[in-house]
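Posting here for the record, re: magnesium ion.
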Amino acid sequence: MLEVTDLTRAYGTAGSAHLALKDVSLRVADGELVSIVGPSGCGKSTLLRCVAGLLPPTSGQVVLNGTPVTRVPGRLGVVFQDYSRSLYPWLSVRDNVALPLRRTMRGRPARRQAAAASLAAVGLTDAGHRYPWQLSGGMQQRVAIARALACDPVLLLMDEPFGSVDAQTREDLEDLILRVRAERGITILLVTHDIDESVYVGDRVIVLTPGPGQIRADLAAPLPQPRDQITTKELPEFVHLRSEVSRLVRGKPLAPSDDTPAPSDDTPARAAAPAKPGAS
Amino acid sequence: MPPDLKPFTSVARSPFAAAAGRARAIRWAQGLAGVAVFLVAAEIAGLLIPQTVLPRMSTVLSQAAGLAGNGQFLSDMAATLEAWAVGLLITVAAGVPLGLLLGSLPGVRFATRAIVEFLRPIPSVALILLVSLVVGSGLRMTVTLIVYAGIWPVLYNVIAGLDDVDPVAKDTLRAFGFGRLAVIRLVSLPSAAPFILTGIRIASSVALILDIGAGYVTGRINGPGIGAFISDANSGAGNTPLVLAATVWAGFLGLALNGLLVWAGDRLLPWHRASLGPTGQAGVPGRAQRLDHPEAAAAGTAS
Ligand SMILES: Nc1ncnc2c1ncn2[C@@H]1O[C@H](COP(=O)(O)OP(=O)(O)O)[C@@H](O)[C@H]1O
Ligand SMILES: [Mg+2]
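Prediction output follows.
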């Protein structure tokens, strides 16, 4: 269980502080996949960094399985938004993936084998001996994903992980993440600015307001599992949810509730209290 | 690591390798042409100017060739190389760890700033007499001077290299649960390696300058070396061609040692040149070329 309570984060010194996140509270159950959407600059990356223990909150706290996060928790996987900067140019792709395993796995052959398996899972079987700078942006992004998965994380934080891959690969990677989650029960926080993606992969979709980021809505996405790129996206629930998230991201009022198909009885879509005046 | 990393740098390297080979051949040809033009111009100038002022280039070159078979000169050259190697080794062994310390602990860096800023601008040549009084003459004196002068470019480049490490690269390893020391060892050090190498190359040039300069100033009392050889040659009248011939060798030595370090760097850091793209034209980031010492500046233009 991940609990974020009244998380506020400001950048800069007291005099010229810039508020990036304001009073964000959310709970994520074990094995849940939560999408976070919001306009760029609204504090999504900041939120992930605070959850990862890389950035101390200005106020509020993050609690993971009952322990306050004051440093990087164990068995965490992170895919950074700047994937090209988070891969090491002096290491081959395979050694990039194997590097974090040095902490947990003994023996170079074992690590390389685990790295190769993880690369195969993201469809990069033949790229292991190459160097990151020899790969396209989309391939580099997949290397970063393979590296996070190789560590066998229980909590996976992904910051716009499919930003620069083509549409087909993007769908494949979305399905890969869903499959891995189903197989291993990983808890996943996935930041995206793609509204379709947020609804397609998420058990829940959290919409943030423009900076300082606050939670505008926390919607359940009770679409049947396993999801399918074609049939799931044809469902009226999907279409409805997508429009709703879209309106929320754009800050438009929600559609009147009488002509919307009810998503599901036990997990009704609920919008959080409207943003306070002047907050956006 | 560099933010300007091209995401679509081609995987197939052979066409680029061929192009780079051609570019290298053209650069070599241009360099040789420049040397040839210089030599011809110097020879013509030597014909016009009295030999006592400027000896003929052909005389200088034939004397230089003769030095290759001169036992005294060869043992002097060996002594110069020894002092260079010992001095540079100590410089690197002391400068790199010290730079890592100062670069990763900003508190220590600020605490030592005043003393560093005082010591750094003192030209080592001004210290030759002082050092010979304190540590005596010979290899010890030369090495002391080399280390004193060479440590600054190494120190500054290590620190600049650490400052230049991408915070995302460090955060990535931290996010996988690694501690500070592991981040320095696995990310900061390899990432700063090109800077460190530049610092070592500058220190190498500085070392050679002081090596020969100190030998020349103190003369043969200080023991063998190219500097002592030049000093001896200078004391005999009409020996200007010999002085110049030995100087030509000193120049070649500098060129060869720099080439050796560049070659070793390319072997050690193959990703560095390659990740900059096919031509490697981007070079080391500008800040790696920091020339924080008067002698380093002089050496930098020579290298
Ligand atoms: N290191 C930093 N220093 C100062 N301001 C920052 C820093 N990182 C982010 N910000 C600012 O905080 C806000 C939120 O940034 P970020 O979390 O990266 O947003 P997002 O990921 O949603 O695009 C932005 O206005 C950004 O300019
Ligand atoms: Mg971001």
